[in-house]
Structures are given as structure tokens and as C-alpha cells.
Hints:
Layout: H1 15-18, H2 22-25, H3 30-40, E1 45-49, E2 62-66, H4 70-73, E3 100-104, H5 113-122, E4 128-133, H6 148-157, H7 161-168, E5 171-176, E6 179-180, H8 201-205, H9 215-231, H10 233-238, E7 246-247, E8 251-257
Parallel strand pairs: 1-2, 1-3, 3-4
Antiparallel strand pairs: 4-8, 5-8, 6-7
Amino acid sequence: MTIRNIDGSAGDADYGRIGSGYKTYRQPEPEFAKAISAALGDARSVINVGAGAGSYEPHDRDVTAVEPSESMRAQRPAHLSTAIDAVAESLPFTDDSFDAALTTFSVHQWQNLGAGLREIRRVTRGPVVIMSCDPTRLDGFWLNDYAPEVIATEARRYPTIEQLADGLGGNVTVQYLRIPLLCADGFSEAYYGRPEMFLDPGARTANSAWSFVAEEAAERAVAALEADLASGAWDARHSVLRTTPHFEGSLALITAES
């Protein structure tokens, strides 16, 4: 049985509380969208599981979106299809209904990863494409020096690449995606060269890991970062990142062929 929050969210984060401004900070990054499109190959029909506000849904294919959170469904732009209210663990489709499947920044929200992967594989004839973060690479990001509780939360929630590969089966390939300096999709590592963004409450709220951290710890982390930015201490250690075109962090694209 899948337990939902008030707005229908089926994962551990309450998007009824934290999701209202999500699409302001979490826009699709063109470089990632290009990689996703290549991974989907020539698929015409695609199911997007945990579709959220519609980031990374290809406009040149027949997309069926699935999203359990009411607040996230409400943020989908008018040009996208209406998302179906369902969860990954119980998809309301017959076997082999779609040419391909897509899920981005979603698998760490599923209550039962194995069940969700079996369902997404069941309804898909061709490739399953997952964009997620590799938890073993998260602590290399400088934010760990200021907000270790946030990084630890993310590492605990994200499934390992091995778990995803084992759950999907078939021929699995893993591509680590380089993150551009002005990345439009504001997940944590997107701000590797723009540390001031972490002083913005909206940017932090759009990263659900912050919602699991005690308010006192979050305030302490932000205050420490703000002080180091003001004093120049952050730049003394990391200024090169402000002009580094790409950052190789934890973001990965996992593609499983049947």
C-alpha cells in the first residue's frame, strides 16, 4: 500500500508544502534534455513517471505523464498533457504500452524502489531512461563543508547506480552528465559556481533534502556560507569554480535496454 501526503505526494517529501515555487528554480537544462533525447532513441510513445511540472518531457513525442502530487500537477504548463494521478509502484497501464520510459529526479521519492522499477519495466517495450544522482559522489561537492546534514540526507535517499541497474535488468549503460555553470535546473550541484544561490530560501526549498534538515542546522549552514562569502573565505578556496564551464559531479543518466 502506498501512503500519500495531503496533496497526493507519494514519496517522503511533502510537495504540498515545498513544491509551490518548484518550476521557478527547476527549469529543464538543455544539455541534459539533449542527452535524454538521445537515450530515448526513436521511441514515439513515452511514459514520464514522477513527471512533476514537466521538465524534460520531449515535445516531439507522444508523452503520457504520471504525477501523484496535486501541487506539482498544477504547475504543468498548458502546452503539456494533463498528468495522470498515479504512483510508480502501481501504473494504470497494460504491459508493453509504451516505446520508452523516462523518470528524472524521481526514483529517490518512490516508497518501494523495486516495485516501481518492475512497473516501469512492465509497461515499457524499449529503453527505460533514469536521471538521478549517484549517492557515492555527493560528498565531493563543497556544500558538504557547510551543510553536511543536507548532503547526508541526499545520499541516504538516492538509490545507488547498482540498485537501479539490478532493478531494471537488461543491458544497462551509465553516463555521468557534466553540469554547466549556468545550469537552468537548480538542484544542489547546479550552483557549484554560484554559491550565493544557497542564500535564497526559494532555491533551497526547491531542493527537497533541505526540508528534512532541522531548521537550526539549516540556519547554521546558511549563516556560515553567508559569512564566508562576505569575508572572501569561500572564494579563497573555490573561486575557480565561478568560471569553470562544467562540473563533473553526481548527476547520472542510466539507460536500460530490454
